[in-house]
């Protein structure tokens, strides 16, 4: 008598998505009521009383739409990234080299792009971001067998620009009006968490667009996302060219070097902030490299296409918690310390305990909910400590240690097989504990001097 073994592919329940959607909706809809009851009357909020009465809310709306567009571009290439490499004959060994070149470009070139952005202007850097995506889109549309090495370099540099340029542009543009209106920090806080919310939503949207354009025939439709990326890149270039005059006052290289040495390299608080940013970036990179292998360990079958939006939905939910914490008068450093510790504990459990898939997905979702909270909190701290004119350079240089660490572990794991996946996750967990320690020390440093809510500016009119 034969035995039939039935196999099933695990996928999250539809109730998970309903829970994430309604939780985010409730947090957003109840926040104006909470604000009217508990917040000081001197504060303004995007939820309460500023329809388009000033140029700043108009810019905020326009900027978020532009950021949404850029985030869709960032996510569109990754929908069928690994399958596309296999389709065009890239071997597993070459895939490791492919990743090393990408992180190498981010380390040796991307780390300097923030400095260049501060010197040439944020508008031009954002234009370069869209131009790089346009080059990749045209290359994949025109070439029958596109050069993935060139595309990889362009996309790695575009991702490096994405990590700092839009945030810096938002802060500088808001400063032109909000510093005079007296509610600059409130508007920026709203922009920061909305950026995280929109980015997560747009990454889900890019998956929908990619699947829709490819359709049911992967072989014939594998190049279809390139068409969408090209059109979106052209739209982004058009928007950037039309709506910003780019007449920001820029420092000379000599003045910039002196200011960077004094305000960034000479400030211990910014070193702590940069270390926390690097640790977070490293842990996120390790997670996205290993999340799928962890889920499918021991031959388990998982519907990864449904888990991906679940994780991003959790990040959206985490970002909606940010305005509640800020208006509850909690210290930013305390919130970050708790969030980093929670993330580190989650990764520590994942590293040594291969549990059932449902438990793992729950831990992954909690990890991403913490990311959704941490990203706007770190941006808020940068606004408090980092001069606007030096912000891009500070962010890009803070990511250099993380990219170097990723290069090292990829080389050890990919070529020499001396590091296991669990060890990589442990390194990420240790980094998050270090980030929590940095936030604790930063809080103590804040009590030693006068912590200013307004950022330092190297320009005095």
Automatic annotation (TrEMBL):
<feature type="transmembrane region" description="Helical">
    <location>
        <begin position="61"/>
        <end position="80"/>
    </location>
</feature>
<dbReference type="Pfam" id="PF05631">
    <property type="entry name" value="MFS_5"/>
</dbReference>
<keyword id="KW-0812">Transmembrane</keyword>
<feature type="transmembrane region" description="Helical">
    <location>
        <begin position="364"/>
        <end position="381"/>
    </location>
</feature>
<feature type="transmembrane region" description="Helical">
    <location>
        <begin position="100"/>
        <end position="120"/>
    </location>
</feature>
<feature type="transmembrane region" description="Helical">
    <location>
        <begin position="423"/>
        <end position="442"/>
    </location>
</feature>
<feature type="transmembrane region" description="Helical">
    <location>
        <begin position="127"/>
        <end position="143"/>
    </location>
</feature>
<feature type="transmembrane region" description="Helical">
    <location>
        <begin position="226"/>
        <end position="244"/>
    </location>
</feature>
<feature type="transmembrane region" description="Helical">
    <location>
        <begin position="16"/>
        <end position="35"/>
    </location>
</feature>
<dbReference type="InterPro" id="IPR036259">
    <property type="entry name" value="MFS_trans_sf"/>
</dbReference>
<protein>
    <recommendedName>
        <fullName>Molybdate-anion transporter-like</fullName>
    </recommendedName>
</protein>
<dbReference type="InterPro" id="IPR008509">
    <property type="entry name" value="MOT2/MFSD5"/>
</dbReference>
<keyword id="KW-0472">Membrane</keyword>
<feature type="transmembrane region" description="Helical">
    <location>
        <begin position="270"/>
        <end position="291"/>
    </location>
</feature>
<keyword id="KW-1133">Transmembrane helix</keyword>
<feature type="transmembrane region" description="Helical">
    <location>
        <begin position="303"/>
        <end position="326"/>
    </location>
</feature>
<feature type="transmembrane region" description="Helical">
    <location>
        <begin position="393"/>
        <end position="411"/>
    </location>
</feature>
<feature type="transmembrane region" description="Helical">
    <location>
        <begin position="335"/>
        <end position="352"/>
    </location>
</feature>
């Amino acid at each position: 008598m034969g035995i039939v073994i039935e196999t099933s592919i695990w996928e999250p329940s539809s109730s998970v998505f309903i829970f994430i959607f309604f939780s985010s909706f409730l947090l957003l809809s109840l926040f104006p009521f909470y604000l009217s009851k508990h917040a000081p009357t001197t504060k303004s909020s995007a939820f309460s009383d500023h329809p388009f009465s000033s140029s700043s809310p108009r810019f905020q709306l326009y900027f978020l739409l532009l950021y949404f567009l850029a985030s869709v571009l960032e996510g569109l290439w990754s929908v069928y990234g690994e399958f596309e490499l296999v389709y065009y004959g890239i071997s597993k060994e070459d895939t490791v080299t492919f990743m090393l070149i990408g992180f190498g470009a981010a380390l040796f070139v991307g780390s300097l792009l923030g400095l260049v952005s501060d010197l040439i202007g944020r508008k031009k850097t954002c234009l370069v971001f869209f131009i790089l995506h346009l080059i990749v889109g045209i290359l994949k549309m025109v070439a029958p067998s596109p050069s993935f090495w060139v595309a990889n370099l362009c996309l790695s540099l575009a991702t490096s620009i994405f990590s700092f340029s839009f945030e810096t542009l938002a802060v500088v543009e808001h400063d032109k009006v909000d510093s005079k209106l007296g509610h600059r920090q409130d508007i920026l806080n709203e922009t920061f968490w909305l950026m995280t919310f929109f980015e997560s939503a747009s990454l889900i949207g890019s998956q929908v667009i990619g699947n829709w354009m490819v359709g049911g025939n992967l072989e014939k439709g594998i190049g279809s996302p390139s068409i969408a990326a090209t059109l979106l890149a052209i739209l982004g270039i058009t928007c950037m060219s039309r709506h910003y005059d780019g007449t920001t006052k820029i420092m000379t290289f000599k003045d910039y070097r002196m200011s960077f040495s004094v305000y960034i390299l000479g400030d211990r608080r910014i070193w702590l902030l940069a270390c926390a940013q690097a640790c977070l970036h490293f842990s996120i990179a390790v997670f996205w490299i290993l999340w799928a292998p962890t889920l499918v360990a021991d031959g388990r079958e998982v519907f990864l296409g449904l888990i991906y939006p679940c994780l991003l939905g959790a990040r959206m939910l985490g970002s909606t918690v940010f305005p509640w914490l800020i208006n509850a008068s909690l210290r930013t450093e305390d919130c970050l310390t708790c969030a980093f510790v929670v993330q580190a504990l989650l990764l520590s459990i994942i590293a040594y305990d291969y549990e059932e898939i449902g438990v793992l997905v729950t831990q992954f979702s909690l990890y991403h909910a913490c990311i959704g909270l941490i990203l706007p909190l770190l941006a808020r701290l940068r606004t408090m400590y980092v001069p606007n004119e030096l912000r891009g350079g500070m962010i890009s240089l803070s990511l250099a240690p993380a990219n170097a660490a990723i290069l090292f572990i990829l080389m050890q794991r990919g070529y020499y097989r001396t590091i296991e996946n669990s060890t990589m996750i442990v390194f990420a967990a240790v980094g998050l504990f270090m980030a929590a320690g940095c936030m604790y020390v930063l809080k103590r440093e804040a009590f030693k001097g006068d912590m200013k809510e307004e950022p330092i500016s190297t320009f005095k009119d």
